[in-house]
Amino acid sequence: MLNEKNINVAENLLFEILEKDNHDHLLIATDFYSRLDCMTDHELQQANFSREEIERGLNEIKVIFGLPT
Length: 69
Hints:
Blueprint: H1 7-17, H2 23-38, H3 41-46, H4 51-64
Helix pairs in contact: 1-2, 2-4
């Protein structure tokens, strides 16, 4: 989905499957946002996504998994 610039759909699916007690899900979520962070601003803009949304998503992941924000 990331290659196809369907970031919003991918993010929605990510949050639908997350289980806060599943360490693998934390790894998947952090990898997802790490990959987004490696994208250029232009790529993010083309996908209708922003760096601010990356930051908000990561913070939400931290809250879900009880990590410091």
